[in-house]
Amino acid sequence: MSGLAMPEPDAGVLARRDEIIAALRAIVPGEGVIDGVNEMRPFETDGLTAYKQLPLAVVLPSTTAQVSRILAYCHANGVRVVPRGAGTGLSGGALPLADAILLGMGKFNAILDIDFDNRTVTAQPGVTNLGITTAVAHAGFYYAPDPSSQIACTIGGNVAENSGGVHCLKYGLTTNNVMGVELVLITGEVVRIGGKHLDSGGLDLLGLIVGSEGLLGVVTEVTVRILKKPETARAVLVGFPSSEAAGECVARIIGAGIIPGGMEMMDRLAIHAAEAFVKVGYPLDVEALLIVELDGPEAEVNHLIERVAEIARGLGCATLRASTSEEERVAFWAGRKAAFPAVGRISPDYLCMDGTIPRKALPQVLSRMTEMTRTYGLECANVFHAGDGNLHPLILYDASRPGELEKAEAFGAEILLLCVEVGGVLTGEHGVGVEKRDLMPSMFDEVDLAHQQRLKCAFDPDSLLNPGKVFPVLHRCAELGRMHVSRGQLPFPDIPRF
Amino acid sequence: MTDRLCPRDEAELAEAVRWAVSESRPLDVVGTGSKRALGRATQGDVTLELAALSGVRLYEPAELVLSAGAGTPVAQIEALLAEANQMMAFEPMDHGPLLGRPAGEGTLGGLMACNLAGPRRPSAGAARDHALGLRAVSGRGEAFKAGGRVVKNVTGYDLPRGLAGSYGTLAAFSEITIKVLPRPETVETLLLFGLDDAAAAKAMSAAVGSYYDVSGAAHLPADIAALVPALGAPGRAVTALRLEGVKPSILHRRDKLEGLLRGFGALGALDEAGSLAFWAAVRDALPFALPPGGDPDAAPAVWKVSTAPLHGPAVGAAARALGGRVFYDWAGGLVWVEMPDGEPEAERLRAALAPAGGQSGGHATLLRAGRAARAATEVFEPLDAVTGALVRRMKHGFDPGRVLNPGRMYAGV
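Above: the input entities. Below: the structure tokens describing the complete assembly.
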């Protein structure tokens, strides 16, 4: 693993491997516990394939009661646990540890309740993101967050990562669409938070659990809201001679009060790679391509398409096409949706980064990234959720060349630090995981991180759930719990009091 | 010793909290104190007033982001946003009139601490859904930040969301960053007359489950509808469905929606001015408002109940059986209940929220009651043992000396 320090495996746990596996088999019989090296191999990595590690054992429970007993056992015996959904995550959140069991939630694959009257679906966490939409599509409904991996990624993983997608400027991230969960704590205790009603009756634990990257508990049931699929969707494909003009177009569309269903930008390298791969007729002589999708009632969509086209023409766009059929709209998106594999065709390997920036900083960030391509001698293609400022630079490298992965990682880290420098953040939707863990201090100081970890301590004081992820240094909870109080200090002489 | 502290910046705020810890003096954390009558009767003996942490620090309409000091008046923020044709899409309720105070006193910090929302809640979310970042001082007297200033961010735990709705029990906010959105160009409201609660819930479900982007769905039984001037004494129950956006879209949707709902009852409409007045009345629960200067201690108890929309009428029936009056927002999922007198009848009302299918039936929050009732009643939905222990551990992590609004939400927290 290129320089990534993970928590030191607990030798005592490693020595007790047989005993631990026997205890787990007593909870999950048959094929639910996997301990052979070859059989565990498919679980050694997730979507961040640069890092691999075999776990102590893989456990595949199928009931909440089993999850509860597994976690209670691990809690009592000091065994670490790494939860895993479909393993599509891009930040290494499901990377195994040598002394931890990998808790695979794939067998939780049933949809439990579809309630069209209250517009909710309750599903087990191993149901795929797209599986929820598929289950309600016949009635014209869908589940809004649509990460690119939606065919494979699970709703449980989406909850852990607070996944986004191309529609989240208008429809929100996972957190805005989840209404309730059943959660098993590391003690084995089962809690239900939320349900078919809105908001919390007290502290918003649900808001804290979504996006907690498997560090607070294991989700065994999820209730989401479903929406009626928009009556119409149309897209405009606009080519610009510069990324500045494309960025300005995005700002003016939003400034005009229009929130598109999706608004994506691609740079020259990404456009060419996508066009070569799917041949959908993208213009090749432009520096930036915007896809702006309007969705909703037909009259509204047609009205807004015109307004978007006016704005784009006013900015001197080089090309402009509005979709006139559903096939054409889908074709506009085909290139964008295939951008990652398309880049995969022109380069042996690539790293997909995920920072968010204030949109106005785009020209500055793009020009600095161009300088970096020269410094590192690596190419970089850019796709960009333009509406919400979420940048996905794809750094092209060849892992078979010694040192190139490290170079690509250094390049990626420099991009993310640049995102923070211009007022943005390290990750917009992929999560911190192990990938961005060591960059956390660029955004948060020690006091900030200590407050986040105190939340962790409330849920998992022994830090058994997914250790080594998110936090660069995990302080012991006893240490974080201390408070130094000095009595007899001068009580703030300057604060106004009445 | 002094009983009111007014820090002028975050450093003074931290100093004030450290003093409270060292002297074991619990603090009542307030902005202007407009929502002081909300929550359990508190034990704080020193008021920590954040009103001086005021002012918009950053507003970038094209980025859809605004940052302001926690003490910044909500009214000031709304006026600034309106200049750029933007808004807080979650449509925060103003508790003033319900509590016998003037409208427009609330602050951004109070809005976030109470996780306010309005009729647009089902489609646009609550304050929590628009919280991007914050700076705050925990009960450890340490200033910290969380989240960021961009609209899409999953870096670290989502503390801004988790602290929304914490009623100042974990941290005192100093600065808050929210996502703002374009204001709809215009608004109209389709009305259905004379429906009973159950039929109204079905009609609202059909409307919000349609293609036609209904951004508000409320039902006012006849006794409540008579109290809303924008309806002009309809003499019967009114079910209202709001359509917002560009004019051509509204015309199209209204036409379609009328076709969809014709079978439910007689139809009517409110124009833009009527709609704005009507939805403000629903948002602020004006049918249960007190006259200015009215004493919430002596007023009938008011509950805000959140449940599955189709279960709303059952909650309404239970409240009526106790002599209460009700109306519905959020397509039936929010039930406003006013009891006949100051007795909240918590247990009997909450019995209507019994879990169904393993899931919680919802939660009831006592929004207005006398001090004695708020001391004797669980104001917030009671927690089960495991969740209660979790919440106490969170309190211990953020405020081990229990100086920030102790007991405001739960005894011992």
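Note for the figure: Chain A has a mean pLDDT of 94.
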